[in-house]
Amino acid sequence: MQTVVNGKPLVYLDNSASSQVPQVVIERGSKYLREEHSNIHRGVHYLSQRATTAFEGAREKVRRFINAREARECIFVRGCTEGINLVMHGYGRKFVSEGDEIVVSEMEHHANIVPWQMLCEEKGARLRVIPMNDAGELLLDEYEALLNERTKLVCVMHVSNALGTVNPIKEIVARAHKQGVPVLVDGAQAAPHLKIDVQDLDADFYIISGHKMFAPTGSGVVYGKAELLERMNPFLGGGDMIRTVTFEKTTYAGLPNKLEAGTPAIASQIGLGAAIDYLNSLDREAAHAHEQELLRYATEKLTAIEGVRIVGTAREKVCVVSFTIEGVHPHDVGTILDQEGIAIRAGHHCAQPVMQHFHIPATARASFAFYNTKGEVDRLAGAVAKCVEVFS
């Protein structure tokens, strides 16, 4: 990246909010807009056929990337928020009743709390919360104690956007399945960093957001086991999700069309396919090892600065370092770092219950991708030290 901010080369450490987009991904989306632009499905003309082939080709790339059994189990959405709401409306409103319970965790992003609160309020159901310890790790025995005959769904994130914690999803799913409870996994923060195998995890729903994994905004996927997706009601009604329409009755198309009403974000989803091609071209193990080294190095450098506290010290983490500086509001930290050409995120990270757990209003968060370097970590640490000096 050649961008200069306040006279300094930009250091981009806000990857958990949105990762940068590789040139090959930009070029693939541009090619669609330049050479293939047309609406997909139903069209018999040349451009529509090309666009449809590219769009459905991206779906197959997603299927392989997450190891779904069938491409029809991969529903295109604009991102994780829309995906979770799709499951809430299509599955939750159909199968959750008064007195039922939905389990979420204390570390969830608001997108995996608010829709379930809305559903509980509508249905007279109850939201139960898996607690976490002060390292930012879920307490699995207390989680298992929450599961009972009233539990209708468990909704938990694979990786915490606020803490970096990698949750033991396979075990969480297994414990829920012993009680016959399906599990929805928010995989927004996991997909850029970890190998995802939905069949191995046995997740019932797994949701990813393209712009966290080097794809354009407006792209994402809901994976669902076919038997569950088939039982769901459509989230939206309109074009391309129907089989027949009369004024007396509408019948719905099969998967995935039933859950993809209207014209989708075609260029963005094709871009998601290109981002997957890009990720597959990398040595993922080497990239992960590099990110883990950046995490270790950044934690070491920041911890050495007087007054800095790392928030989230789980044994299993991805490359997210949330921190506070004694006596300095995180927004001020973010502002000073921006003056030094360093982009981080400051705030509650759409995870206010996490902040409440640690009795803080917000954190400063540096989040890394494989393209970041130790030199950039050094610049981060230097800027944080300057921040401490300014406010001391």
Shape: globular
Identify the CATH class of the largest domain.
Alpha Beta
Q: How much helical structure, as a percent, in the residues?
A: 40-55%
The ordered string of helix (H) and strand (E) elements is EEEHHEHEHEHEHEHEEHEEHHEEHEEHEH
Q: What fraction of the residues are assigned to beta strands by DSSP?
A: 15-25%
At CATH level 2, the architecture of the largest domain is: 3-Layer(aba) Sandwich
List keywords for this structure.
392 residues, 4-stranded antiparallel β-sheet, Aspartate Aminotransferase, domain 2, Aspartate Aminotransferase, domain 1, 7-stranded mixed β-sheet, alpha/beta, globular
How would you portray this structure in words?
The protein has 392 residues and is α/β, with parallel strands linked by helices. It contains 13 helices and 17 strands. It starts with a strand and ends with a helix. 47% of the residues are buried.
